[in-house]
């Protein structure tokens, strides 16, 4: 939009006000303007599609997220054309560029363990009066996130330092096959300067150091783009409660600048210390041998003590109190943010200098010292998850929520999956690199035994998952059969077509499988914990790979162990290729993005409170954007506003509504459709989207209506407790709109599922009712159990409460 148009909009808004920022704005009765703020969902769309007009103008925003209007509606607030007042002025908030971009962003999928453990932080159960226990829950998740960072860098050290520099370069047969390692080999280079074991390690350490630096850079850049976007500051109103039923309404919830900066410093320092310990430990072990140099031995002890002290400082920084949500915390912990990584970097430089010192007669043999690191990390992660489960159970008992997944244990289950992903990725990469370097399988010892065991448990885990998916397929078939009768009842006046009925019933059954996701997570997490424990015990008890440990047993057992070992390694390599390919396709293909986008957008919706290297939180930009737009528009124009949110857009709309001042929130209506607010967020994140939080939102906005379909795998009813549901959930929309061909639909109507809610006539009718309730004049009475939210225009008896359960188990209201 040109500068002239921007200035004309600003002048129009100033004219619509009553004289200035210090004077009261016009009351809604003094303007006929109505605004519908459209917020799209997963996958995104164009402003032209959202506004159904090829000519759109950007009102405010930038190339990443912006608000658009039709060109004819730019001056709607001051236009003398009263015909505009017959319907709302549509505005589109387009935020898809916050979560999508070029194909390189698919590499963020490699940070999936960090994102998953960050999700576990927000999955804690709702609790009453247990602040210390809540803080303990967050502390345990942050510690689990720290172990994942150490595990990732340790895996990079294993590949670069141990397999390449220590084992392969130190073995003539392996170095001969890889000429690029020749200058590091003592035999191939004829004792060259870089052939000393310590210098080889020092040179190879640049790989994990560069990885740590890359993670720091990405976190630092996204921190300045996302976490540093300041929400609107305001003074609390007299009737505003100090602490509402959800933390999403607190002033500092979407401003994690201080915490992410502090965690970034700690995790960066942890990564650098991991590299320094891997380099220094080998040299220190050599110096402690009988006859070793006393001076270097003393320096090694001092260096290891300094590394341990810095590691304690890192853990202390992570253990400090987490987020400051009750206020906008604009401070930064400069002494931690700058000094801690710098101290770790200095220690790394000293470790490289120490390891590179000349040591005559030092040769590399076997594996690099530090095999116990991976075993210690696996044990620590298992213990953290078990303790986290106990804390979550204690929190759930204080305020039980029957809809919360796994009785409040969703967070520990997801944390277990994050640790398993980290372990599998580390073990798989190490095993694949070892197989690539050692073509014969006899020249080098390979990765630590535990990593081989962890890669070997992948095939049995896949077998369990295949059985689980088989059960889901059978369940879907049973539900589809049961839904056929329900489809026939929903279209009583239509001539039945068996193929058409089966297709509709099958779509409903597949959509209902979303509600069985907790079982999948529970089984996967439990089996992963058991298999991980078995792998740890097997590695510690035998100190051999599964194939070697199974020698001398039954031929079937030996063959199964060797097959699992080889197959697990190949599956990891194949999984990485598919992972990146799938991610690139999801960012380029809208259909593929809609398939997996809801999981990714749920993961990146939440602030980075547990792991600073997780993909950035787009809501820390989107929620303040929406809050600014709603608050300023209602204050300047005094007009009526309906937030119309689809899918993930409904979650952003609810979060923005919680951020508004109570007086502004009472002048706003919500229209949500295809919304996962209760079905996904309410069940998986009960502390923030539980029944108490959604009920308060229903009470505090002027009106809220929710539309959903039984064929929608993502959206669902809000299911407010008690009689509050009377004014929120509409009865399930028909999908398809027409069973067969008729005068209105001469061609076959498609099954819409999660898309095109605006195509249903009910959508326009519900929007009209919301706007009528917000019409100028006397304020409409508050909705109660006796009066549905849309007001007297609602059909009598149409929504007298939750309807009967459909055969798929989903409530029809």
Structure description:
This is Chromate transport protein ChrA. InterPro entries: AB_hydrolase_fold. The protein is mainly alpha-helical. The chain has 27 helices and seven strands. A seven-stranded mixed beta sheet has the order 2-3-4-1-5-6-7, with helices on both faces. The longest helix has 38 residues.
Task: Tell me what portion of residues adopts beta-strand conformation.
Answer: 5-15%
Average pLDDT confidence is 82
- Helical element count? 27
Query: Based on helices, strands and strand pairing, what is the structural class?
Result: mainly alpha
Query: How many individual β-strands?
Result: 7
Rg, Cα atoms, Å: 30 Å
Strand line-up in the sheet with most strands: 2-3-4-1-5-6-7
Report the major sheet.
7 strands, mixed
Distance between the termini: 44 Å
* Shape type: globular
Low-pLDDT parts are 1-30, 782-787, 791-813
The residue fraction in helices comes out at 40-55%
Essential attributes:
813 residues; mainly alpha; 7-stranded mixed β-sheet; 5% strand; disordered N terminus; disordered C terminus; AB_hydrolase_fold; transmembrane; transmembrane helix; membrane
């Amino acid at each position: 939009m040109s500068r002239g148009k921007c200035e004309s909009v600003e002048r129009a808004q100033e004219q619509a006000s009553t004289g200035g920022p210090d004077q009261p704005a016009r009351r809604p009765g003094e303007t006929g303007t109505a605004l519908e703020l459209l917020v799209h969902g997963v996958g995104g769309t164009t402003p032209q599609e959202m506004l159904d007009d090829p000519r759109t103008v950007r009102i405010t925003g930038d190339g990443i997220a912006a608000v658009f209007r039709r060109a004819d509606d730019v001056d709607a607030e001051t236009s003398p054309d009263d015909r505009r007042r017959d319907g709302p002025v549509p505005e589109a908030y387009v935020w898809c560029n916050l979560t999508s971009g070029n194909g390189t962003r698919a590499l963020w999928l490699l940070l999936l363990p960090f994102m998953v453990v960050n999700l576990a932080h927000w999955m804690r159960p709702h609790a009453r009066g247990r602040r210390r226990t809540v803080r303990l829950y967050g502390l345990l998740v942050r510690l689990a996130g720290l172990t994942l960072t150490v595990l990732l860098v340790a895996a990079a050290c294993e590949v670069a330092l141990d397999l390449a520099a220590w084992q392969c370069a130190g073995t003539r047969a392996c170095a001969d096959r890889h000429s690029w390692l020749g200058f590091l080999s003592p035999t191939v280079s004829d004792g060259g300067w870089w052939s000393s074991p310590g210098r080889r390690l020092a040179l190879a350490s640049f790989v994990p150091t560069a990885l740590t630096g890359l993670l720091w850079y990405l976190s630092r850049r996204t921190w300045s783009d996302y976490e540093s976007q300041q929400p609107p500051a305001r003074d609390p109103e007299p009737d505003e409660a100090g602490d509402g039923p959800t933390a999403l309404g607190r002033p500092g919830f979407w401003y994690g600048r201080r915490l992410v900066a502090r965690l970034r410093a700690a995790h960066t320092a942890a990564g650098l210390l991991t590299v320094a310990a891997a380099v220094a430990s080998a040299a220190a072990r050599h110096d402690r041998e009988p006859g070793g140099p006393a001076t270097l031995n003393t320096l090694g002890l001092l260096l290891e003590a300094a590394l341990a002290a810095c590691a304690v400082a890192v853990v202390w920084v992570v253990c400090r109190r987490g987020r400051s949500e009750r206020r906008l915390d604009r401070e930064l912990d400069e002494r931690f943010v700058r000094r801690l990584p710098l101290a770790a970097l200095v220690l790394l430089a000293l470790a490289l200098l120490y390891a590179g010192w000349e040591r005559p007669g030092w040769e590399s043999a076997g594996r690099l010292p530090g095999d116990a690191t991976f075993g210690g990390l696996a044990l620590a992660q298992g213990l953290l998850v078990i303790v986290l489960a106990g804390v979550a159970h204690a929190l759930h008992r204080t305020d039980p929520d029957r809809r919360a997944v796994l009785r409040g244990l969703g967070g520990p289950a997801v944390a277990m999956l994050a640790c398993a992903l980290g372990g599998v990725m580390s073990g798989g990469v190490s095993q694949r690199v070892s197989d690539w370097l050692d073509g014969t399988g006899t020249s080098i010892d390979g990765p630590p035994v535990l990593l081989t065991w962890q890669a070997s448990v992948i095939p049995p885990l896949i077998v369990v998952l295949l059985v689980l998916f088989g059960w889901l397929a059978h369940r879907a078939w049973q539900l589809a059969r049961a839904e056929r009768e329900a489809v026939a009842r929903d279209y009583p006046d239509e001539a039945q077509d068996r193929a058409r009925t089966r297709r509709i019933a099958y779509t409903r059954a597949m959509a209902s499988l979303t509600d069985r996701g907790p079982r999948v997570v529970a089984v996967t997490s439990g089996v992963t914990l058991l298999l991980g424990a078995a792998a740890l015990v097997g590695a510690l008890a035998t100190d051999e790979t599964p194939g070697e440990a199974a020698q001398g047993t039954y031929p079937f057992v030996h063959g199964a162990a060797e097959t699992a070992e080889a197959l697990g390694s190949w599956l990891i390599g194949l999984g990485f290729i598919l992972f990146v390919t799938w991610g690139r396709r999801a960012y380029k293909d809208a259909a593929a993005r809609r398939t997996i986008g809801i999981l990714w957008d749920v993961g990146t919706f939440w602030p980075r409170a547990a792991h600073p290297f997780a993909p950035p939180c787009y809501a820390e930009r989107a929620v303040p954007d929406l809050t600014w737009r709603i608050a300023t528009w209602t204050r300047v124009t005094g007009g009526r506003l309906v937030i119309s949110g689809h899918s993930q857009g409904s979650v952003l709309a609810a979060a923005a509504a919680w951020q508004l001042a109570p007086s502004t929130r009472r002048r706003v209506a919500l229209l949500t459709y295809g919304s996962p607010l209760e079905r996904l967020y309410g069940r998986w994140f009960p502390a923030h989207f539980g029944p108490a939080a959604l009920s308060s939102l229903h009470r505090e906005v002027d009106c809220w209506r929710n539309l959903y379909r039984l064929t929608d795998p993502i959206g669902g009813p809000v299911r407010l407790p008690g009689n509050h549901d009377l004014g929120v959930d509409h009865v399930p929309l028909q999908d398809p709109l027409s069973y067969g061909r008729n005068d209105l639909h001469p061609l076959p109507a498609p099954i819409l599922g999660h898309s095109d809610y605006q195509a249903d006539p009910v959508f326009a009718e519900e929007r009209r009712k919301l706007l009528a309730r917000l019409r100028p004049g006397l304020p409409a009475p508050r909705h109660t159990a006796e009066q549905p939210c849309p007001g007297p225009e609602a059909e009598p008896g149409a929504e007298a409460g939750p309807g009967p359960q459909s055969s798929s188990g989903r409530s029809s209201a």
